[in-house]
Structure to design on (166 residues):
């Protein structure tokens, strides 16, 4: 493992429990002190695990079990970050809708369309950077047209199949 850094691996268990509690809303100004105590205990456990990693592992070579466990915990942290970010975007969208008096359904469809096109946009930019500009321009037009045509076909096909039995 060329990119392994024991110091960074030591910090992960210390911060992951507190970050998870914060991102999932357990640390917010709630009246329930039990959840804050649980998050504190989890952070203390993270400090213990981090110190064990610091003093019991080699500096340049990680144990295989540590990478597996770290990958699992980091996967769940990525889900927590995605949930937190999504909630933040939805709240900001609602605030923008209240300020501008724009219909909430229109705002939702706009954000859904933006999110649907982000993957295509990043692929088109990558193709352009590699020198395939014409292919990127074609993909910019053909991708949405293909999606609309296939989506329309599948929707009509599903409608026809569901009405065939009636």
């Amino acid at each position: 493992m060329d990119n392994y850094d024991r110091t960074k691996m030591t910090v992960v268990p210390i911060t992951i429990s507190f970050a998870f509690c914060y991102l999932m809303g357990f640390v917010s100004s709630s009246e329930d002190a039990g959840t804050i105590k649980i998050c504190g205990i989890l952070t203390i456990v993270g400090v213990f695990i981090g110190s064990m990693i610091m003093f019991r592992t080699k500096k340049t070579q990680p144990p295989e079990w540590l990478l597996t466990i770290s990958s699992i915990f980091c996967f769940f942290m990525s889900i927590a970050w995605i949930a937190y970010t999504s909630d933040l975007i939805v709240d900001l969208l609602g605030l923008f809708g209240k300020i501008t008096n724009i219909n909430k359904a229109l705002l939702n469809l706009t954000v859904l369309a933006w999110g649907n096109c982000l993957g295509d946009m990043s692929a088109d930019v990558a193709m352009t950077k590699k020198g395939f500009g014409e292919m990127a321009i074609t993909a910019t037009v053909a991708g949405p047209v293909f999606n609309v045509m296939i989506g329309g076909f599948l929707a009509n096909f599903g409608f026809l199949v569901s009405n065939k039995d009636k």
Notes: The chain has two domains: 1-77, 103-166. The chain is about 85% helix and 0% strand. Residues 103-166 form one domain. Residues 135 and 141 are 10 Å apart (CA to CA).
